[in-house]
Amino acid sequence: MFQVLIGILIIAALVIIGVYVYQKRTLNAVDAMLNQKAAALAAHLDERFAEDARPELSGDSLKDFNQLKEEYQDEFLTAASRVDDLADQIAQDLHGFNLLRVKPDLRKLQDATAKLISEQQSLENGLKKIDDAKAEHQKAIGQLKKQYQQFRSELEENSYRYGKSSTALRQRLADLETRFTTFTTLTAKGDYETAQDVLSELQEDTAKLDQLIQKVPDVYKPLLTEFPTQLQELKEGYDQLKRHHYNFADDQIDQEIDQLNQLCERSAADLEALKVDEAATANDQLTQHIDQLYDVMQRELDARPKVSPLMRDVGRHLSHAKQQNRELIDELERLSLNYTLNNDELANARGLDEQLRQLQASYDQDQEALAIEEAIDSQVVARQTDNEKMLTAIEEQQQQINDSVADLQSDETRAKKTLQKFSVEIRTIKRRVESLNLPGIPKDYLDYFFLVSDEIGKLADAINQVKIDMEDITKQLLIVQDDLETLQEKTDDLRDSAELTERLIQYANRLSIDHEEINDAIAQAQNEFNRYNYPGSLEILEKAVEKVEPGSYKRMEQRYYVELKRNS
């Protein structure tokens, strides 16, 4: 019984402790939210929304302030009162018998506190917006006032930089100042929202006027100080050049100058109406066309001193080239009687003659135009400079043609000497072969010998023609020379194989005394020798001799070539 009582007491003690801890924690939470409420009230919104708090406001700004004031009274104060009521209710419930109501009421207190803080922030932001607008407008008033003073000072002190555009610029400035007065009045009345609409347009138009004031002088200056002087100078210069018989490809320069004067007037009118971009575009066109006209006149001025010396030099060059071409054609026609001209030399020379006639016509045309003072000097210089280059090219071609035929006679002489040399060589080869005293000559050698002999005969016929083709003769000379060299090699091979075979037969006969097996090889070799197959005969004996006495043939061959070299 006593133990049960102790258990009950322990449970009761734990319950009491738990209730105490819960109460303490809840009260701490309530105190924290009451502190947040106190901080919100410490912002003194009551003073900032008092009846006489913002007497300077008017218009939409006053309307916005009153809406904030209603929100303060209806929402903020209600939320603050609800926080107090819920805090009192929770305190009573904690010390009574309504602990179960504490938790939902604590949640309501948290919501009410959060709403109170949110309302405070919203009201603070609303008031800051009104204050910021006031500060911004006060700052804008100072900036715009200073800027307008600068504009007026610039337009009064430096009006010469703007010409007639200054009237329109002053009118725009006056309009801005009128609207600026409206803006300052609205700001002074505290109607910041309406003033903001005026300020936005005012700042945009002020920036545009600032750009105009910066751009106009740069556009106006050439219209006043450059273009009129340049156009007058071009007009006077053109008239003076025409009096001195200068001519131009586009002979409407005076009309172009008049058109540029009109464009200059249009640009000035656009600028006066503050159409700055249109005026700037017209100025660019004026600059470009004026520079072009200067270039046209300067080109003729630069060309005039070059005309006379150039015409003199081209005339002399042309006469020389024509004379040289006539002599070249005469020489080619003479050579064509005795030689075949394979590279169209005569046709090419006559083609050059046609080019020279065309150049002469161009030259004569310019001479006539200069004589009657209708020539355009720059075109004459360009045309005759090109003609001079063509004359140089023609003379180079003349030299090439002349070089290609200059050696025909000397080539013919050399060809005849070479033919004579070939004839001597073929006869020498024939005597060499006869001196070998061979039983006969192989057919393939004879065929090649007669081939070369025929080639030499054909070459002789070609050289002895009344009209010869040196190009073909040169080709034949090269062929005969190669074939003669080959014939010399074949003759040497014939001599060597025949001589070595005879020596080897004698040596083999001596070896047959001790080596009867070599007799068959000797018989076969003799048979091939009698058939004029000297290389075949030598090969049969070489194998047989080397078989019975290795190295003997190599020694015999070496001795032979040593003797041959010694006797040569």
End-to-end span in angstroms?
159 Å
Q: What are the segments in which pLDDT stays under 50 over at least 5 consecutive residues?
A: 12-22, 52-56
What gyration radius follows from the Cα positions, in whole Å?
62 Å
Structural class by secondary-structure content:
mainly alpha
What does this structure look like?
The structure is a single chain. The protein has 16 helices and no strands. It starts with a helix and ends with a helix. It has helices at residues 2-41, 45-48, 59-94, 102-157, 165-189, 192-243, 253-272, 276-335, 345-371, 377-406, 408-435, 443-463, 470-511, 518-530, 534-548, 552-567. With 568 residues, the protein is mainly alpha-helical. The model is unreliable at 12-22 and 52-56 (pLDDT under 50). It has 4 domains: 2-148; 160-299; 304-409; 411-567. Helix 8 runs parallel beside helix 10 (377-406) and helix 13 packs antiparallel against helix 14. It is elongated and about 160 Å long. The longest helix is centred in the middle third of the chain and has 60 residues, at 276-335. It is found in: Cell membrane. Its main location: membrane. Belongs to the EzrA family. Residues 23-568 are cytoplasmic. Residues 1-3 are extracellular.
